[in-house]
C-alpha cells in the first residue's frame, strides 16, 4: 500500500483513459498529461496503460508499506524520500516504511507518481481512470488523506533518469487543427490565432477557459453533438474553452479548432495565469509529432529494461 498521510492537492488515480463509451455518455477521463504518465510507466518497465497517481498543484506525504521502485513525471516537484532529494524523471527504490514528501510543484500543473507494476485498483469498462461524475475506476472519487493505494511489492532497479517531455514557459505555443465551424466563426481577420490568451483560474479537468479579446461572430445554430478532449468550443461570450480529460460527451457550442494529441499534455501543464498562443498545423504534422513522442517512449522503455 501507499498510505497517503497528508495531501494538499487534488489527486486521483488515472491511466490513459476510458475509450469506446462516448456514445453511451461515459467520458474518456484519464490523465490530463497522458504522455507524461506513459513516460513514467516506460521508465519503470511497466505497460504504458498502467494506472498512476495524478497530483494537481500541490503536494503530499505518503508511506510506502512495501518495497517498490517508483518515479515522478510531468510537473516538477520539490520532494524528498526520507530526507534524500528525489528528482522528477528519475526512478528510485523505496523500502518498506520510507516516507515520500512532495513539498510543492515548482513548475507545471499535473504530476504523476508511478510505481513498479502500477497501482492495483478497480478497472471498470476497460480503465482504472477515476470518473468522479459516475464513480467509475480507481477509488471512484478523488484521493484523500488516510487513503491506502494498493500495489504489489517490487524489486530494486538501477538508477536511471530521462529529461522532461516539455519546457515550462510563461508563453506556450499549442498546435491546433481547424475545426468544422472555423469558417463560420472566422470570416475576416483571424483574432483567434493572432492573440495571446491567458489561462483562467476558472479552469479544471473538464475545461480550460481562456481569457482574451472575445471573438465576435454571428449566431450559429447547432444541435448538440459529440465532443472530446482537445476540442476548442466558442460560447456566446466569445471566450474559447478547450475541453480537457473530464469533458462532457456532447455539446452545442461551435468549434473553432482542436488541439493535436501531441500537445494535449503540454497544454495541461500550463499554469493558471500563464499565456497560450495557438498555431495552426495540418493533419500530417499532427501525426508526425505524435509519432515522434511514441518513438521516444519506446526508446525509454527499451533502455529501462536494459538497465533493470
UniProtKB/TrEMBL annotation:
Residue stretches making up the Carboxyltransferase domain: 23-296
> What are the protein's GO molecular function terms?
ATP binding; hydrolase activity
- Determine if Hydrolase is one of this entry's keywords: yes
Keyword field: ATP-binding, Hydrolase, Nucleotide-binding
What highest taxon heads this organism's lineage? Answer: Bacteria
Q: Which PANTHER family does the annotation name?
A: 5-OXOPROLINASE SUBUNIT C
Official protein name in the record? Carboxyltransferase domain-containing protein
Amino acid at each position: 500500500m501507499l498510505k497517503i498521510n497528508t495531501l494538499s492537492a487534488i489527486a486521483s488515480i488515472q491511466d490513459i483513459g476510458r475509450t469506446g463509451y462516448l456514445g453511451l455518455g461515459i467520458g474518456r477521463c484519464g490523465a490530463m498529461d497522458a504522455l507524461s504518465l506513459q513516460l513514467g510507466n516506460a521508465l519503470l518497465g511497466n505497460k504504458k496503460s498502467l494506472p498512476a497517481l495524478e497530483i494537481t498543484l500541490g503536494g503530499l506525504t505518503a508511506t510506502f508499506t512495501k518495497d517498490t521502485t517508483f518515479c515522478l513525471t510531468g510537473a516538477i516537484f520539490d520532494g524528498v524520500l526520507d530526507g534524500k532529494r528525489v528528482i522528477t524523471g528519475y526512478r528510485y527504490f523505496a523500502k518498506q516504511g520510507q516516507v515520500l514528501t512532495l513539498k510543492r510543484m515548482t513548475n507545471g500543473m499535473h504530476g504523476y507518481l508511478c510505481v513498479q507494476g502500477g497501482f492495483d485498483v478497480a478497472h471498470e469498462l476497460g480503465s482504472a481512470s477515476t470518473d468522479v461524475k459516475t464513480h467509475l475506476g480507481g477509488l471512484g472519487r478523488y484521493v484523500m488523506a488516510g487513503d491506502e493505494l494498493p500495489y504489489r511489492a517490487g524489486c530494486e532497479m538501477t538508477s536511471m533518469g530521462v529529461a522532461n517531455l516539455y519546457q515550462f514557459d510563461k508563453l506556450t505555443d499549442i498546435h491546433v487543427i481547424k475545426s468544422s465551424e472555423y469558417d463560420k466563426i472566422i470570416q475576416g481577420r483571424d483574432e483567434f490565432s493572432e492573440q495571446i490568451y491567458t489561462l483562467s483560474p476558472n479552469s479544471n479537468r473538464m475545461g480550460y477557459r481562456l481569457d482574451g479579446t472575445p471573438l465576435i461572430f454571428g449566431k450559429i445554430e447547432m444541435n448538440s453533438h459529440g465532443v472530446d478532449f482537445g476540442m476548442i468550443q466558442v460560447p456566446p461570450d466569445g471566450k474559447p474553452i478547450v475541453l480537457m480529460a473530464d469533458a462532457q460527451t456532447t455539446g452545442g457550442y461551435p468549434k473553432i479548432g482542436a488541439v493535436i494529441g501531441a500537445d494535449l499534455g503540454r497544454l495541461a501543464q500550463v499554469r493558471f495565469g500563464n499565456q497560450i498562443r495557438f498555431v495552426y498545423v495540418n493533419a500530417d504534422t499532427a501525426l508526425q509529432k505524435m509519432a515522434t513522442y511514441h518513438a521516444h517512449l519506446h526508446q525509454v522503455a527499451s533502455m529501462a529494461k536494459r538497465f533493470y
